[in-house]
């Protein structure tokens, strides 16, 4: 019997059946509301970064290379202790730093750091866990006396880019779940231990005072936990005042910026057709937040949650349950960013009603890092969330871990997308825009380095146009012009702006009388507040700064005698940088040798000896020919201690 | 489909996917951004090039086998169509799925790949199993 249908059925039937099933599946998936609807992910568990890897390998790799990932790590074989962790990825096979141990940059091989009348010894316990032992020194500062004042096994490390801090369980009234930051940290660039008092802008403590030594032995559970981890819950029990802290994941992992991902994983792993349809339209997946499709305001709020210090609307609830923020939420619903005139409810009279004013320059520009979001909000480019967002210049999944800058958005590339070349007043031409040419890009003048953080001078994120004429007569805030023209006055900068045809205020105020004797930056170094002094020392050492290396070396050496360790650090590093650029000769060699012996955290008598030698090599201090002014500036320094609340 | 037309079409298929390989090589040489910077696209374009070319050659072998095994004309005609369409669907499904893809997965055209694979498998099975006296 002829069966003409048999061949067609056998040959074409399976493929036809598959095609019909695929089309039906696509139609069903497209019409299935549960595959597309916006999901409420508040309270969802964290799935962990490893669960993202199989579908998003490239993004996972770029995150894995980032400093975000290593913001908090657990050194093997340290115990996690009472801290609850939803996801604990396997320890890294490849170790970093000196130790060969994942999660630890410092050697912990018996190094010692003497500071403030105490000796810290960093070694390991019998179980191999890093340990910090602090003992009191005798009056001569040579031998330890009495029992250790601190003996702590490291439970977690924090940071890996600039310096690494260490945490240990110490019950100081908050129960056994309390983690505290230890008083010493490993400075990665200098490969040395530092005391945390030297990393903050504050005067030296009293020698032998344990309270001063332990100033930064701060509790982690209600402070650092938030921004250095993913989905942090402090777990404060109001009854016992103890902490039962929980984390989604150590460090800043995928879900810190995308929100809890379990619903997203369930939706897409359960139905491959849903993944295929996800290709057709970006930003339509309601099971995860993609910052790139949220728009500048919502996207920047994800960054601003940590890169913009803020005050929670309900502090007690945040201490109990965490802030509850999910990427894509309106940040204002849970907190408000701190500005110069912000107050805290209930203590409105604190610090004359402006408890945060010291963190800002007089014009309201933040002068500390971790206020980048506020800088953006204050910028004309922000435009109520319709203009510039963080993602314009930064790319969390780009190639460069440092600064995480988007390809092509460095230097003038950051600006020319919005500001057309023909609107830039000649800035795009070589030698245009005041003759700055190729030496200075847009950021040099419009985002100058007037922020301090982590022992660095950082660019401000408040984008503005320099207007030195508006600040003539004032010495309380650095301007973009004189941070590079370190041998000039503000009045010179204002007149130069006008002569070059650049926009600026008319010169109406009288110049600061002191500027006749020294440049703006030198005046800042001598008589500014501590952050001005830090930034002045930083500016004097920068490669593009004007004035000869010799002149700058003589000026910057003044900072080695500062009462603030952070100023001494900037001055020491800056002078070393200047010396390295000097022509090789015996003086340079002697200067580098002297600098090698200078320890900005060392005992004062040792420092004085080295500074005397350095001064003989670099020449007289600034304003030596005007001792009256010099003394006045030194005595008028505003002893402004700033506690960086990270 | 006649044996001659099957052979010609198979050779054309091989030529098409070899030309695609030339294109991929040129993109590599010219450092084309959409190619070098997109691992998913690279993977699926390579899969399409390799599968399309090899399955075109497989069709040539199939054409020879159908003659050699004296497969009845009714079966052979349909086997040729199924094998040729299957090879084209696999190669093009991979390539188009790589050209228009989403964040984590290839684009919808990749759904043609299983259909093409089934057509090829059926063709191979029928070629192996159908005897000269198995007339329709």
SSE blueprint:
The complex is a heterodimer of chains A (646) and B (136).
Chain A: H1 4-31, H2 50-53, H3 57-64, E1 72-73, E2 84-87, E3 111-115, E4 118-124, E5 130-137, E6 144-158, E7 163-169, E8 179-187, E9 192-195, H4 210-213, E10 229-233, E11 246-250, H5 254-258, H6 262-270, H7 272-278, H8 296-304, E12 310-312, H9 315-321, E13 335-337, H10 372-377, H11 390-393, H12 432-435, H13 442-446, E14 451-453, E15 456-458, H14 480-484, H15 490-499, H16 520-527, H17 530-541, H18 549-556, H19 565-581, H20 586-597, H21 604-618, H22 627-636
Parallel strand pairs in A: 2-11
Antiparallel strand pairs in A: 1-6, 3-4, 4-5, 5-6, 6-7, 7-8, 8-9, 10-11, 12-13, 14-15
Chain B: H1 3-29, H2 33-36, H3 39-68, H4 73-99, H5 112-129
Helix pairs in contact in B: 1-3, 1-4, 3-4, 4-5
Identify the quaternary structure here: heterodimer
DSSP summary: helix tally of chain A? 22
Mean pLDDT of chain B: 93
Q: Give me the secondary-structure category of chain B.
A: mainly alpha
Structural class of chain A: alpha+beta
How many distinct helices of chain B? 5
Mean of residue pLDDT values of chain A: 89
Structure description:
Chain B: Keywords: Membrane, Transmembrane, Transmembrane helix. Chain B: The chain crosses the membrane at residues 48-67, 79-101, 107-130. Chain A: Residues 389-422 form the Doubled CXXCH motif domain. Chain A: It comes from Enhygromyxa salina. The complex is a heterodimer of chains A (646) and B (136). Chain A folds into three domains: 69-90 and 100-250, no CATH class; 290-464, no CATH class; 466-636, no CATH class. Helices cover 30% and strands 13% of the residues of chain A. Chain A has 22 helices and 15 strands. In chain A, strands 1, 3, 4, 5, 6, 7, 8 and 9 form an eight-stranded antiparallel sheet that branches. In chain A, strands 2-11-10 form a three-stranded mixed sheet. In chain A, strands 12-13 form a two-stranded antiparallel ribbon. The termini of chain A are far apart. In chain A, 41% of the residues are buried. In chain B, helix 1 (3-29) runs antiparallel to helix 3 (39-68), helix 1 packs parallel to helix 4 (73-99) and helix 3 packs antiparallel against helix 4 (73-99). Chain B starts with a helix and ends in a 7-residue tail after the last helix. The mean pLDDT of chain B is 93. Classes of the chains: A alpha+beta (646), B mainly alpha (136). At the A-B interface, helix 1 and helix 7 of A face helix 4 and helix 5 of B.
């Amino acid at each position: 019997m002829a069966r003409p249908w048999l061949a067609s059925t056998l040959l074409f039937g399976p493929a036809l059946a598959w095609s019909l099933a695929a089309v039906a599946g696509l139609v069903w998936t497209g019409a299935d509301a549960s595959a597309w609807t916006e999901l409420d992910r508040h309270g969802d568990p964290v799935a962990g970064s490893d669960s993202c890897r199989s579908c998003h390998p490239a993004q996972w790799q770029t995150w894995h290379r980032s400093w975000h990932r290593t913001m908090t790590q657990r050194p093997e074989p340290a115990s996690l202790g009472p801290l609850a962790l939803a996801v604990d990825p396997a320890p890294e096979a490849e170790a970093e730093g000196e130790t060969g141990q994942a999660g630890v940059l410092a050697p912990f091989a018996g190094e010692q750091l003497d500071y403030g009348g105490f000796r810290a010894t960093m070694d390991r316990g019998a179980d191999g866990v890093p340990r910090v032992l602090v003992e009191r020194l005798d009056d001569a500062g040579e031998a330890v006396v009495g029992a250790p004042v601190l003996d702590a096994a490291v439970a977690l490390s924090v940071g890996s880019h600039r310096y690494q801090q260490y945490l240990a369980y110490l019950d100081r009234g908050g129960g056994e779940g309390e983690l505290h930051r230890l008083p010493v940290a490993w400075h990665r660039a200098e490969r040395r231990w530092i005391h945390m008092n030297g990393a903050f802008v504050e005067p030296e403590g009293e020698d032998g005072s344990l309270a001063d030594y332990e100033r930064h032995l701060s509790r982690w559970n209600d402070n650092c936990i938030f921004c250095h981890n993913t989905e942090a819950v402090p777990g404060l029990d109001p009854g016992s005042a103890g902490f039962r802290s929980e984390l989604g994941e150590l460090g800043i992992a995928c879900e810190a910026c995308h929100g809890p991902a379990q619903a997203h994983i369930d939706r897409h792993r359960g139905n491959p057709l849903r993944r295929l349809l996800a290709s057709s339209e970006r930003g339509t997946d309601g099971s995860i937040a993609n910052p790139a499709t949220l728009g500048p305001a919502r996207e920047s709020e994800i960054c601003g949650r940590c890169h913009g210090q803020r005050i929670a609307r309900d502090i007690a609830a945040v201490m109990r349950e965490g802030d509850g923020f999910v990427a894509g939420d309106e940040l204002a619903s849970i907190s408000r960013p701190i500005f110069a005139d912000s107050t805290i409810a209930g203590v409105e009279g604190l610090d004359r009603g402006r408890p945060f004013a010291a963190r800002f320059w007089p014009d309201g520009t933040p002068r500390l890092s971790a206020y980048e979001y506020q800088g953006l909000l204050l910028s004309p480019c922000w435009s109520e969330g319709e203009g510039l967002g963080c993602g314009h210049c930064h790319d969390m999944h780009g190639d460069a871990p440092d600064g995480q800058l988007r390809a092509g958005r460095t230097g003038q590339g950051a600006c020319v997308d919005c500001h057309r070349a023909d609107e830039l007043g000649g800035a795009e031409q070589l030698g245009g825009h005041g003759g700055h040419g190729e030496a200075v890009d847009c950021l040099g003048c419009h985002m100058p380095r007037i922020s301090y953080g982590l022992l660095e001078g950082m660019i401000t994120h408040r984008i503005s146009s320099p207007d030195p004429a508006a600040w003539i007569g004032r010495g309380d805030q650095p301007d973009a012009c004189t941070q590079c023209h370190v041998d000039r006055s503000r009045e010179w900068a204002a007149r130069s702006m006008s002569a070059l045809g650049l926009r600026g205020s008319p010169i109406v105020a009288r110049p600061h009388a002191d500027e006749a004797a020294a440049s703006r930056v030198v005046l800042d170094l001598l008589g500014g507040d501590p952050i001005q002094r830090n930034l002045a020392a930083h500016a004097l050492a920068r490669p593009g700064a004007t004035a000869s290396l010799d002149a700058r070396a003589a000026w910057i050496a003044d900072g080695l005698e500062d009462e603030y360790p952070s100023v001494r650090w900037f001055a020491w590093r800056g002078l070393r940088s200047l010396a390295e650029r000097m022509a090789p000769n015996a003086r340079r060699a002697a200067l580098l040798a002297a600098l090698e012996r200078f320890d900005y955290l060392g005992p004062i008598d040792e420092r004085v000896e080295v500074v005397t030698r350095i001064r003989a090599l670099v020449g007289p201090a600034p304003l030596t020919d005007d001792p009256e002014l010099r003394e006045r500036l030194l005595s008028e320094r505003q002893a402004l201690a700033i506690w960086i609340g990270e | 489909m006649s044996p001659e037309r099957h052979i010609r079409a198979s050779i054309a298929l091989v030529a098409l996917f070899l030309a695609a390989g030339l294109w991929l090589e040129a993109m590599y040489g010219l450092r084309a951004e959409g190619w070098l910077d997109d691992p998913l696209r690279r993977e699926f374009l390579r899969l399409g090039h390799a599968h399309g070319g090899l399955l075109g050659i497989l069709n040539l072998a199939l054409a020879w086998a159908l003659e050699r095994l004296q497969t009845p004309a009714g079966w052979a005609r349909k086997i040729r169509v199924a094998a040729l369409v299957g090879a084209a669907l696999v190669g093009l499904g991979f390539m188009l799925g790589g050209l228009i893809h989403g964040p984590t997965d290839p684009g919808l055209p990749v759904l043609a790949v299983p259909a093409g694979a089934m057509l090829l498998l059926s063709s191979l099975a029928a070629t192996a199993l159908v005897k000269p006296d198995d007339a329709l």
